[in-house]
Amino acid sequence: xxxxxxxxxxxxxxxxxxxxxxxxxxxxxxxxxxxxxxxxxxxxxxxxxxxxxxxxxxxxxxxxxxxxxxxxxxxxxxxxxxxxxxxxxxxxxxxxxxxxxxxxxxxxxxxxxxxxxxxxxxxxxxxxxxxxxxxxxxxxxxxxxxxxxxxxxxxxxxxxxxxxxxxxxxxxxxxxxxxxxxxxxxxxxxxxxxxxxxxxxxxxxxxxxxxxxxxxxxxxxxxxx
Length: 225
Description:
Strand order of the largest sheet: 1-8-7-6-5-4-3-2
GO molecular function: D-ribulose-phosphate 3-epimerase activity; metal ion binding
Distance between the termini: 17 Å
Keywords: Carbohydrate metabolism, Cobalt, Isomerase, Manganese, Metal-binding, Zinc
CATH architecture: Alpha-Beta Barrel
Protein name: Ribulose-phosphate 3-epimerase
Cofactor: a divalent metal cation; Fe(2+); Zn(2+); Co(2+)
Family: Belongs to the ribulose-phosphate 3-epimerase family.
């Protein structure tokens, strides 16, 4: 049976009040988030530092059933596979750029039972995924340079999304960076079905309305195909 794609909205909690992460995360889930996108930065692969597996584990202890995706913006993603699995992460999305043996990292993630996400920075050509796409559950196309929130959306990255959708019709494709009500049409038309939105959702007066609108836009395009 062919896999049926669905639209999913995963707010990035990086822009939320990190001192009250549980309340903020629960509020987003109650407002219609399909999953939580947790940005993990090591201060090496990207200049910023955020949080690690101890915090994720604390969050999991309070939020039992939500789907957690960790976006690992780290130089050595293989180091954190077991700790993040132990912390209750559902999908481990890592950047291919610093990794020498991508299939090995994919295998190690799979062995823990987590899903595999492969992330590409704006400067990385999309066809690098060909060698290990069969090991990935999802590909994340960064639409800004990773490491900082609130950047401007890079429209040319939609060519990568289009290429992926044309070549892998049933693949989950995620976009992250500068995605909001003004840019969601580009993402949806290009073929993205998993939408990470930070500032646009967290900063909204009515996050429920914003997430519903993002989801409707993506669903409308999926329904046409």
